Amino acid sequence: MARLKIAADQQHFERDGKPFFWIGDTLWSAFTNPTFEEWAEYLEYRKAQGFNVIQINTLPQWDRILPDLGIYPYPIREDGSMDYTAEPNMEYVARAQKLLEMAVEEGFTPALVVVWANIVPNNWLSNLFPGMVWPLEAVERHVHRVVEWFDRYDPIYFVSGDTDLRDPECVKYYQRTIEILKEEAPEALRTMHLCGGYLDLTPELADGLDFYIFQSGHDVNAIHKLPEYPAEIKRRFPGKPVLNAEPCYEQMPKMVEFGKPPIGFFSAEEVFETARLSILSGADAGITYGANGLWNWRRDPDLAEGPAVVIWGETAVWRDAMRFPGADRLQELKTIK
Questions:
Q1: Cα–Cα distance, 134 to 7 (Å, whole number)
Q2: Domain, as residue range, for 152
Q3: Neighbours of 162 (CB within 10 A)
Q4: 319 pLDDT more than 90
Q5: What is the CATH number of the domain that holds 37?
Q6: Is 220 exposed, middle or buried (0-12, 13-18, 19+ CB in 10 A)?
Q7: Rounded to an integer, what is the distance from CA 150 to the centroid of its chain?
Q8: Looking at the domain assignment, is residue 308 inside a domain?
Q9: Which of 42, 161, 244, 281 is the 20 to 30 Å CA partner of 110?
Q10: pLDDT tens figures, 99-143
């Protein structure tokens, strides 16, 4: 399968010279939680619905649902952080490669987050969990390894995951990540996944990206701010495709403020309307969907642990979340591009 490219109009994607409308699904926890049998079931179901991109974290997602399969890229310390000084666990690598091979065979493009915010210093997430931060040289090693392990599957690279860029030290980590990707995977598309409502890319970082994504997110008032996001991105950084890669997830709690009780859950209708308004507002290169309980992959209805449960509440098990009705309507959005 050929790599995804930027179309001649510099506003959309194409593959093999044909238009490609990004219909993504959020599976941050794919490398740690599903079995191969579950993954095959998932791929078959989403393929039938018309999805064509899967967004995955290359490291264990900090707020995934536990228990998972217990297979990690590096040893896990008692405090939950990864021992980045250790040699990588090749069982994890082989498993991730098999998952990507299965996905690509079914026609999906992997969108891989290279460096999630929790391991980078001085952003909102790592400030909450400072013990998770890696030194720059450890992050550089991981970026090199991601390309070595996964570039054969023609992925898109998300340089960052859920970060802000309010500190120069944080920016330095991502600038270095871009430099390594440009050198070692020059044909792969690069973008940055920023935290909800955050648009303040530096010009230097923006120059290293092929397209822009934003996160309207899970704030109860996010939909009212939607028209501002694509217009502001195009004003600051014109000439590249834009899409909303994290609108509200179906059955995700409606957040008033991070860490405070939510006020209900996002319905299928609200998810679809957010996606529709994203495209009508100018983020028309595609859209990403998310289902709470699937992105973090809850398997056992009677047992669920970890930050995901505390922050995002009780969820459906992954198989039920996969069948939430909002996912069925995304194909309709192709007609309003």
A1: 37
A2: 24-336
A3: 25
A4: yes
A5: 3.20.20.80
A6: middle
A7: 16
A8: yes
A9: 281
A10: 999 999 999 999 999 999 999 999 999 999 999 999 999 999 999
Does some domain include residue 8?
A: no
What's the rounded Cα separation, in Å, for the pair 205 and 58? 21
The mean pLDDT value for 141-168 works out to 98
Return the residue matching tokens 């860029």: 165
The overall average pLDDT reported for the chain is: 94
Q: Are 214 and 245 in contact (CB under 8 A)?
A: yes
Q: What's the sign of the alpha-carbon dihedral 65, 70, 71, 74?
A: positive
Q: How many domains does the chain have?
A: 1
Sheet holding 286-289, edge to edge: 190-191, 156-161, 109-116, 53-57, 22-26, 286-289, 242-244, 212-214
User: Strand 190-191 vs strand 156-161: parallel, antiparallel, or unpaired?
Assistant: parallel
Cα–Cα distance measured from residue 243 to residue 249, given in angstroms and rounded to the nearest whole number: 15
